[in-house]
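Data deposition worksheet. Section B asks for the primary sequence of the deposited chain exactly as it was used as input, without tags or linkers unless they were present during the calculation. Section C holds the resulting structure in token form. Section D is free text for depositor observations; keep each observation to a single sentence. Incomplete worksheets are returned to the depositor.
Section A, Depositor: J.P.
Section B:
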Amino acid sequence: MKKKWIAIGLILVLSGLIMIPIGINSTSIGFISDTKSPTYTETNSWNISGYFKENRKLTLTITTNNKWGLMAADFWGDLPEEFAMLNETIKGLNMYYIYLTVNITDPKNGTTMFRVLYVTPKNPSSNTLAPPLRLFSVAVSFNDGGLKFPDELVVKENNYLYLKEDVGGDVWGITTYSGTYKVSIKEDSTLKVFGPPLKLKLESALVVKESPYYFLVPIGGVVVSTGVVSSLLGTKASKKPRKVYRKGYKNKRSKIK
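Section C:
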């Protein structure tokens, strides 16, 4: 029983020592609305720009032209290199696609290029004049450093970065500098027939670090303390008391022998 207390104590100490660093080091990145920064919008345009402070989430939302879906069949063929691995997937889904090339120029004239892929059904319902476009994937083609992309919010594959869908916004990145960021969407010759995007919107958000498992730190401290107390109690209980004989009593025993 005494050894069991010691063993339980050691297990608790080890468990607590594991929990504490997990709670401290497990951080994630989140975003909250930057109410002090303006929202920039442009209608019927291929370009937009706005001022952003350093370490803000820059989000570009693209409202596609309603008629672009009519031109999707003209894009048929192999996808750009960034989306080559999706060729069979798109064919299997019986979809057409279009893609946009988006360049964002930072205040130091560096460029980050994105490819934005949209899909649309090959056989839309008969009452649909223009097949709807659905955002399918966003790739970072290259980056001069004006925008940052935390590892936990992107997928790395084939030397490209792919933005995760649940982050919000069509195109985004975290600003490296303070200053004006300029967005330019390449005027594709096929899509130009029907005109530019209906609307472009640029928004800023604050970047915050969250510690979802920080509650493990105090719990781990309690577990370690409990384990130490348990081990000490077990150690003390396991020590056998030494027998102490009075001198006279010891001599008596000797005479008996």
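Section D:
Helices lie at 2-25, 87-92, 216-238, 247-256.
The mean pLDDT is 79.
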